[in-house]
Amino acid sequence: MMKRGLIFFLMVSLILFPVFVLGQGLTDTEVVIGLTTPLSGPAALWGVTGLGAQAWANYINDQGGVHGRKIKVILKDDGYNPARAMANLQEMKGKIFAVTALLGTAVVSACRDFFHENKMPLILPYGNTRMFVDYPKEKLRYIFVAYPDYEDEAAFFTSYAIRQMGTKKITLFYQNDDYGKMAIEGVKRTLKEMPGKGELMATIPYEVVERALGTHALKLKESGADTVLFYTTMSHAALILKEMAKIGYKPKSIFSFPMGDPIMYKIAGEVWEGVYVAAPANSGVPGADREADKVAEIIKKYDPNIVGKEYLGVFGAVSMMYVVEGLKKAGKNPTADTMIKGLEKIKNWKPEGIGAPATFDENRHMGVTGVRIMHARKGEHVPITDFVIFKPRF
Amino acid sequence: MDLIESYREELRLIRKPWTGFWVGMIFFAVILLPWFSPEYYAYIATLIFIYSIGVQGQNLLIGYTGQISFGQAGFLAIGAFTFGHLSRLGSPILINLLCAGSAAGLFGLLVGFPSLRLKGPYLAIATLGFGITVYQILANSEILSGGRMGLSVPKLTPFLGLTKSMSIYYFNFFLFLFFTLFSYNLVSSYIGRAFIAIRDNDIAAEVTGVNLARYKLLSFAISSFYTGIQGGLYALLMGYLEPNMFTFMEAITLFVAVIIGGLASVEGSIFGAAFVILIPQIFSGYKELVPVIFGVTIIIVLIFEPLGLFGRWMKMRLYLRNWPFR
Lengths: 394, 326
Hints:
The complex is a heterodimer.
Chain A lengths: L1 H21 L7 E8 L10 H15 L7 E8 L4 H11 L5 E3 L4 H13 L4 E2 L13 H4 L2 E2 L5 H15 L4 E7 L2 H16 L5 E8 L7 H9 L4 E5 L2 H13 L5 E4 L8 H5 L7 E5 L9 H13 L7 H21 L5 H8 L26 E8 L2 E4 L4 E2 L5
Parallel strand pairs in A: 1-2, 1-3, 3-4, 4-5, 6-7, 6-8, 8-9, 9-10
Antiparallel strand pairs in A: 10-11, 11-12, 11-13
Chain B lengths: L6 H5 L5 H20 L2 H26 L7 H17 L4 H20 L7 H21 L1 H4 L5 E2 L11 H25 L1 H11 L1 H6 L4 H27 L1 E2 L6 H14 L4 H17 L7 H15 L3 H15 L4
Antiparallel strand pairs in B: 1-2
């Protein structure tokens, strides 16, 4: 009887051994990464980042995985809704090892506590980075960010325009939310630092639900600005440029990094020619960077849905590259703790040669924040500056 | 469905011992759920509790009083931001919730005034305007919306030695229970019957002594109070607020929940809330097909069950009661 009991105990122990030793989302053969992203709803296009991340994981699996483990991705739609994103995370809890590419300021803000509460790394969320500036260090330990800061970007645009483009009068056209409002602060900051060099003529907001931008274009023209900064979505960028063209207003136009995708030529048409647009330091631009082209070709093979949306696909693939790098550095039997330590070992690293180098350490969880400026010429985005790296804030 | 022999019997919530048995079983299952299920199920149930309160409020207005409102997102936002600001000042949660409901109720009263003159699509447009106005004011006022970074709201502190998720679950469950019982009582009271009379024929209701102005305004105020409470509880659960969380789509979600659940039914409101939470969640792995599945499911329910999920529930009960003599 006792012998039978011992055998039963040993069998149960053998079955449960990997669970206890390897932890959540990890077996001998696979590591599970969770992704919740907007695949439907107002921000569905940005969900392509999730597809890019998944495609890169599949590519890595075909190369043999990481330390012999395949990466399994659980991809869920949250419709850009914080409550649904949190529900997805709760559902995946216990089944996943880490989360990547969480998207949207509201979503990331509502979900950020989940990660330290469940001792799970969040790698490269996309949202306003300022939410982590005053975040307690013990909670920040689980968060790794590589995303441009909106305010710093606008401050750089302003100084670049004044110094390099002869700008005297600036107007800001912005989306009426944190993204646009942070740009106002950036422009004001630079103008304060460079007194008498430039003037803010107007700040003109629009709502994300608005589509008729004729009056906004008239207001931009009336502001008398020689340079306009745009903090918009892709579709609003196209709409406002077309309205401005109708009334014959053609100032120097500088667009924030969400418009860095050359697909803007398809959306906006010929009015896109000649504008200036930023590209984020954490990713590359297919069509402009050889390394990004290489990655785009790979992910398109794994997911044909990415065709035509390569910029966002590469953006997401880069997030998965950070996950892979963290897993490599975490050793053969990774835990959340060794994964964090592994990511903190990343120094001056460019994923597949893409973007500007990122560095993490125990006190620095903002790996890279910065942009470069590109010029839209003959259907392409041509970089005209090197990456300008901003000071990491956490 | 039942043969009712007296007014006293009509007012009883549970009329048969077996019904009492099943209700008791469901109650205990819900009480025990967070102890025996993964946290995910408790979280989804919590969302259903919170939405059920708002949907019950909307049903009081649409289903019982026959007034239409597309401004619920505005009331939701008023409740949520009132709760958020008061929480940041450190005042107690229950007081904050009461204030969230009252602020929304007060605005509901104001929005109710057009209902005295407007009907149908005209009232829908007027209330829609209110919802958009609230969104615009919040989006343009950093003081009200919490500024560029949105509004961080302190989350619920665990109580009675329970875990964080259990505390959130039970807190929302007991509030849901309170408002559900209140709804049952309200619709059985003089006020509820006045609402129904207005819905069925407002002129006839006035002839029989129902003060139309008073009860229409009251319906808007109570409905908005419920929605404000939903907003407050949502703020407490999320711990973060920004105006974009309260767009027109939220009003549509509540509206869909009422129609799918079943008009003029408290149980239907709960079914409707469960529907709008569960369907996108169950199918979240189907990625971009989620809205299509959601839309098709709504069409299927409305084609095959015009009375909503509550209608189907009643038919199922009748079938089981008469079994095997059907």
